[in-house]
């Protein structure tokens, strides 16, 4: 089996061209990448350049609004809404140097920015979410087949059949320009973490790099991580995918939910803003997650997310006690920490 591997990284690139005819080969490649590394990129995935550009335009329009307008839909404790500099990572004890907007399919009453502030925000966002969810379904069916499970396991597990219980989330991300700013070593655009969903699909723009992954992982549930970090090249034509903690558990740890982070630009690198967009396929609230070998107790999607949030809060307390001296930075953590994916 041969992979195309980005020069500067060891994250395999898997092409989805001729998907139906190449299905068996694609499943083999997805399983190999996800059991060894937990990350892969997708080429020829069917989401058009225009769709991706439109999504980034929407994101830029939204983040260009004044903070008091964005604050009309603040992060609401259910992984929906806007935050800025409010996500403190347990792994670093410092706030990510970013702002983000979380959007879901269900229970979004009052959480959509109004047409007075931004034109057609909801319709434009949902069009992109639908497209990414459809592609995710294709990939998740491959994982079900690769794991010897019923084809619909993760699709029925994540896609709302019309009852309004979806927990999947689109996250628009804006990492601010760091022109003329100095940061201590403990600051990151996004501190090291593993995602707690089933499957993440991440869109980047050419040249806006900084994403690093720490390939492979043996256990779910702690914030320890290895020390080998690989760069993932920022390419707008490829989707970066990673396995989240839910799929790691659902596969009895066969598929790895891998730690990753976004570093600040190094000396001599462009200091401009970075935009990325992540779609987190989450288990529906009442779906039971359990692997075929029953390695872990059954758990519902709702309980899984609740526990992930609790673990994050505990992690924050433990880490900030252990690390009292955080270097000063231009952007500092606000008093309230939030826990999102
Ligand atoms: O912006 C990126 O490249 C990664 C973001 C990420 O890992 C996350 O939001 O979970
Ligand atoms: Fe992530």
TrEMBL record:
It comes from the Eukaryota. InterPro entries: DIOX_N (IPR026992), IPNS-like_FE2OG_OXY (IPR044861), IPNS-like_sf (IPR027443), Iron_ascorbate_oxido_reductase (IPR050231), Oxoglu/Fe-dep_dioxygenase_dom (IPR005123). Pfam families: 2OG-FeII_Oxy, DIOX_N. The keyword Metal-binding applies. One of its GO terms (molecular function) is metal ion binding. Residues 165-283 form the Fe2OG dioxygenase domain. Keywords: Iron, Metal-binding, Oxidoreductase. Residues 76-97 are annotated as: Disordered. Belongs to the iron/ascorbate-dependent oxidoreductase family. This is Fe2OG dioxygenase domain-containing protein. It comes from Pseudozyma hubeiensis (strain SY62).
